[in-house]
Write a structure and sequence with these properties.
The complex is a heterodimer. Chain A is built from eight helices and ten strands. By secondary structure, chain A is α/β, with parallel strands linked by helices. Chain A is globular and about 55 Å long. The mean pLDDT of chain A is about 90. In chain B, helix 4 packs across helix 7 and helix 8 runs antiparallel to helix 9. The chains are: A alpha/beta, B mainly alpha. The interface of A and B includes residues 84, 86, 92 and 110 of A.
Chain lengths: ~250, ~250
């Protein structure tokens, strides 16, 4: 299905760089992401995909570069957190709270909602969304890895984000559960119009669910293109990724 | 060693400032404070009762041996009470609470750091220090003196119960001697000491939790260092506050 995007970028990153000592992880990377778009970031382990996310929302301080949200420069990166939700590689649920309270946490603490009935209904709706209707009273350690990931996903949705940053959401999951998570991300992109940026190693899922795919290599976005063109790219990193993903075209 | 001490001292001061300033910045999370009061205070009553009583009994027996040599057995209860309230109860209670609650604070925060729960808070624009520190600081600062007062009462009661059994001095004599020679500020000094002990134990434990390195080894090291540094701080503080007390009275 053809998607139409507003040409004004929702998020624009310009010349972002980050080094750890002499290790230049990100070198002047730039990208524009449109509202409602789903973008996948591919790349080998350790090339700086998670560092890019962390620099975006100020969990790490970039050495240089600008970030614009709706064409307005974000000077304090923590400002972008108001619009973003970050789905971490690990579920990172608060282990002292049950699943209900984990999901209600952003409603109470971030969105400052006091209405208990609203919170109850919203959490029930989100639990239904991720297929965990019965898990509200369970503690995180009582759930399987896949269920924890879905609960974590529900918690990020509770923030009502404009942008969803998903950091390897299927890591450590079996293919069936991983597929469920990817479908949930895709569903939130399509039905809730949340702009999704997903770090993944799964080329097949990226091709199916992304509007654009980005290849991060040697600290730079070497290829940024729609899935069809991405597959035809002559870039060495892309070709080796395709080969190793057993997807010879 | 010296370099590490200088680095730690350099990072501790701004951390302490952030923690104390967080006490006066809203939102004030009353439910979190209340749960820490229960965890640190009420849940420690049994262990404090046992050690308080044992302390009173041992001290009575030991002092009896010494006082018999000087023929001053009638002053036994007064001396034991003074020792318990000015020195032993505050220090022993603090050391026990370091083992029970200080280590728990460090490991809890350290685990939250290792499992990205602190990053989740930050990604939601919630300052982890502002969220986690005030409840623990307040609970330790106010529960340590209460538990110390309780320990003094238990220790004195145990001593009072033992004296008529092992000596010829009766209850009335012991109490009369105590009333004549015991000042209220001797009780207060122990409680005031405990107030500072609680504050420093919480601060040091939080510092080591927030600064733990990721992984099991880092967490174990942080917990050990937290306990050791808190214990040293208590001994030093006891000396300093004791000196101030002697100078004033």
């Amino acid at each position: 299905m053809l998607k139409f995007f507003n040409e004004t970028p929702l998020l624009r990153v310009k010349n972002l760089s980050k080094s750890f000592g002499k290790n230049h992880v990100l070198r002047d990377i730039s990208i524009s992401i449109r509202e409602g778009e789903s973008v996948s970031i591919l790349g080998k382990s350790g090339v700086g995909k998670s560092v890019f996310f962390k620099c975006l929302i100020g969990l790490l301080l970039p050495d240089s570069g600008q970030v614009y949200f709706r064409n307005k420069e974000i000077y304090d990166k923590t400002q972008l957190r108001v619009h973003c939700a970050y789905l971490f590689q690990e579920p990172a649920l608060f282990d002292s709270m049950n699943i209900f309270d984990n999901i209600a946490f952003p409603l109470r603490e971030v969105r400052k909602i006091k209405d208990k009935a609203y919170i109850r209904n919203k959490v029930a709706e989100l639990l239904g969304w991720v297929g965990l209707e019965e898990a509200g009273l369970q503690m995180p350690h009582e759930l399987s890895g896949g269920m924890q990931k879905r609960a974590s996903f529900a918690r990020t949705l509770a923030m009502s984000p404009t942008i969803l940053l998903c950091d390897e959401p299927t890591t450590g999951l079996d293919p069936v559960t991983g597929d469920k998570i990817i479908k949930l991300i895709h569903k939130s992109n399509k039905e809730l119009n949340i702009t999704c940026i997903t770090i993944t190693h799964n080329l097949q899922q990226s091709l199916l669910h992304s509007d654009r795919i980005v290849m991060l290599n040697n600290g730079a976005f070497e290829v940024v293109d729609i899935p069809d063109n991405f597959l035809k790219s002559n870039n060495n990193s892309v070709q080796s990724f395709i080969t190793l993903s057993s997807l010879r075209i | 060693m010296l370099k590490k001490f200088i680095i730690t001292a350099g990072t501790f001061s701004p951390f302490a400032f952030r923690v104390f300033s967080s006490l006066f910045r809203p939102p004030f999370r009353i439910s979190l404070i209340f749960s820490q009061f229960i965890k640190i205070g009420l849940n420690s009553i049994l262990i404090i009762s046992l050690t308080g009583a044992t302390m009173g009994l041992i001290l009575t027996q030991q002092m009896l041996f010494a006082l018999r040599q000087f023929g001053a057995v009638e002053s036994l209860y007064m001396i034991v009470s003074k020792m318990i309230s000015t020195e032993l109860s505050p220090v022993v209670t603090a050391l026990l609470l370091i083992a029970k609650n200080g280590s728990s604070i460090t490991s809890e925060i350290g685990i939250m750091k290792t499992t990205n729960q602190l990053d989740v808070l930050e990604s939601m624009n919630i300052d982890p220090i502002q969220y986690l520190a005030p409840s623990r600081i307040l609970a330790c600062t106010f529960m340590f003196p209460l538990l110390c007062a309780y320990s003094i009462i238990v220790g004195m009661a145990a001593s009072l119960a033992l004296i008529p059994i092992i000596t010829e001095v009766d209850l009335a004599q012991s109490i009369n001697f105590l009333i004549q020679r015991y000042d209220v500020h001797e009780l207060l000094v122990g409680i005031i000491k405990s107030f500072f002990f609680g504050m420093f134990v919480a601060l040091i434990s939080l510092f080591h939790g927030f600064n733990s390195t990721r992984g099991a080894e880092g967490l174990s090291l942080a917990t050990t260092e937290g306990v050791v540094m808190s214990s040293i701080a208590i001994i030093l503080l006891d000396f300093i506050l004791g000196k101030i007390y002697v100078e004033i009275f």
